[in-house]
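Section 5.1 Outputs to date
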Amino acid sequence: MTQSRSTRSIIDTHRHIFGPKLLQKFVENIGFDPSKPLPQANAGEMFFYRESVDVDYSMEIQQKSGVTLCLNSYGGEIETFAQSIIKASTVDTIKFLHDESFELRDRFPKDIAVMANAHALEENTRDVIDPLISSKEACAISICTSYGAGADQVFLDSPKAEWLWEYAQDKDVLVHIHPPLVAIGAVAMQKYRLNEALGRPFDTALSAARMIYSGVFDRYPRLKVLFVHMGGAIAPVICRLDWNWELNYKGIQNPPIEKVDKNLRKPSEYFKSNIYVDTMGPSAIALRGIIETCGVDHVLFGTDFGPVPMSPKLHIDLVDDTIADEGDRKKIFSTNTLALLHLAETAPRLVPKAA
């Protein structure tokens, strides 16, 4: 019997909600003017839509779309928030974002779940996230694909991130990975919103590849990570990652050890063991491709709604229209997320009620 679409559970794992305290920081520090018409954009190509700055409006759209629960994300943007928006230390910035997110959850207790925000390269942020993860108040850890810019940009294969992989594996908690506002190649992408359209997916693909090749998933075989935006630009080039691994430096005398791949399996295999992706595209071709790459059990529903002012209904319709099997749609909409985040067992108050 087909489940009624008005009663089914749909969990959005990729949602951005900016509360009133954060909006005030936007006004004070990055040029948002609530007295002017929307949409607006600042010089740094941060865009403000009603869907991102009006909480009540965005939540009404979410509820009407059919989404029954969302995971609130700040995109792992700890450095940008700390340096340009909140203007505080890393730890104080994380605490500010947590306070804001919990206030939103308390205001919409049936609609919002919280992720813990960490800086992947700063181990002292463990002390901020651990109480939330251990108490199940937060159901995942949110980080960025890279930190810094230009020659100083650091990716997630850095030894400084080892603490996080060890912690996440030990706690069996998902790491939710989102690209930064200013992504790789930003200097060449200052026109046509290319930083958003190309830079961020490229940043995700590069960080994912570096994690694989550096052996992160071999050192931490039970680690689970989710790369947003359908894995960025990784799916179309996964075959190249595989043959690049096959070639490696085989047959080369005295290869540069720092450039030799460390992973023990084909890169594509990690997408069916350690790596998960969301459905934010939106493209039927890309959705089919990422399911082929990862398997339907590793695909979670996600929309990027808020800063991307497209109703979650667009993404819901994409899954409905593209995926013929009802069981597979249910996996993408809810059951994959319920299992991966252990919501049913550890935080039943967050679990949408079944029909």
